[in-house]
Automatic annotation (TrEMBL):
A Pfam family the protein falls into: Peptidase_M19
Molecular function GO terms recorded: metallodipeptidase activity
UniProt protein name: Peptidase M19
Organism: Pseudoduganella rivuli
PANTHER family linked to this entry: DIPEPTIDASE (PTHR10443:SF12), MICROSOMAL DIPEPTIDASE (PTHR10443)
Signal peptide: none
An annotated GO BP: proteolysis
InterPro entries xref list: Metal_Hydrolase (IPR032466), Pept_M19 (IPR008257)
């Protein structure tokens, strides 16, 4: 049984410690996707992060595997190693060129969404004026499908996400998003979006971030409650976990260079507060999650699907071109 965490964040710095990854592994996680950049990160920063993360993985082959296929993930689990890939949160590092998508795939990116909260040249963000995909965005969806990358709609506005899910030829996921019906935050998604995701064969992965769970001290029980709601709306085959834990390291400054305005990307009008930053589930949440999923009515087999089996199925379909 593979435990799959669809999205976590280390510092956006090439020297980031992988100690948090080791903590996830110790808690029973076999695979996770590490974020390597977003729309606010300029290309030199994204490339340095990818290079640094790849170097760290290569230097510890006894602990980590940079996966390209589902077979790599399963082999790593059998050998007691942690399988890793990368994800990109936004299309601005693609420089408006669909051919950049395949290059990122070669570098280890296996999951990608097009916007980080704000509109750009490709799609509309969840904290901006409603807008659908642009013509370039439609070409980008095709490029993601062709490159063997999982198409992700986290941080994406409702209109754009529905259009992406309508035209994608492969399953689409929300790697870290929760049901709006339970917690009314603009980053969460409607039942319409949940059902559209399931119609692609995709998965909604529950975030462990306090703002999105509606809990100041988020726990495995909170994650299970949101997972149960998605299962009720779309079926248990379309629920996963993407804890969205942001591991900070005080000695590293990963602030994007240049004129970076946090209030633009995380607007107060959308419910963000610098005075009250979010909290996250702990990596040890994974030790408790199976029991909590049983408490909300899932069988052992259904809990196993949520904790990894469903995302393993999506990766099998999306990563193989």
């Amino acid at each position: 049984m593979i435990h799959w965490d669809a999205h976590v964040c280390l510092p956006q710095h090439p020297d980031a410690s992988f100690e948090p990854v080791a903590r996830l592994h110790a808690a029973g996680v076999h695979y996770t996707s590490l974020n390597v950049g977003a729309d606010m990160n300029p290309l030199p920063q994204v490339m340095s992060v990818i290079a640094g993360y790849r170097a760290t993985i290569a230097a510890q082959p006894e602990r980590y595997v940079l996966a390209s296929t589902v077979d790599d993930v399963q082999r790593a689990a059998r050998e007691g190693k942690m399988a890793l890939t990368f994800d990109l949160e936004g299309s601005m590092p693609l420089l408006d060129r669909p051919d950049m998508v395949a290059l990122y795939a070669q570098l280890g990116v296996r999951q990608m969404h097009f916007v980080y909260n704000r509109n750009n040249s490709v799609a509309g963000g969840c904290h901006d004026e409603p807008r659908g995909l642009t013509p370039l965005g439609r070409r980008m969806v095709q490029a993601v499908n062709d490159a063997g990358i999982i198409m992700d709609c986290s941080h994406t506005g409702r209109m754009s996400s529905l259009e992406i899910m309508d035209i994608s030829s492969k399953p689409v996921v929300f790697s870290h998003a929760n049901p709006y019906a339970l917690t009314q935050h603009g980053r969460n998604i409607t039942d319409e979006q949940i059902r559209a995701c399931s119609a692609t064969g995709g998965v909604v992965c529950i975030s462990g971030l306090s703002w999105f769970l509606g809990s100041a001290a988020p726990s495995a029980a909170d994650v299970a409650r949101h997972a149960a709601y998605v299962a009720d709306v779309a079926g248990v085959a379309h629920v996963g976990i993407g804890t969205d834990i942001c591991f900070s390291q005080a000695e590293l400054d990963d602030t994007p260079p240049g004129e970076f305005d946090p209030s633009y990307w995380w607007p107060a009008s959308a419910g963000y507060s610098r005075e009250h930053p979010p909290t996250f589930v702990a990596p040890d949440m994974w030790r408790e999650l199976a029991a909590e999923l049983r408490k909300v009515g899932m069988s052992a087999d259904e809990a196993a699907q949520v904790m990894g089996g469903n995302m393993l199925r999506v990766a099998t379909q999306a990563w193989h071109r």
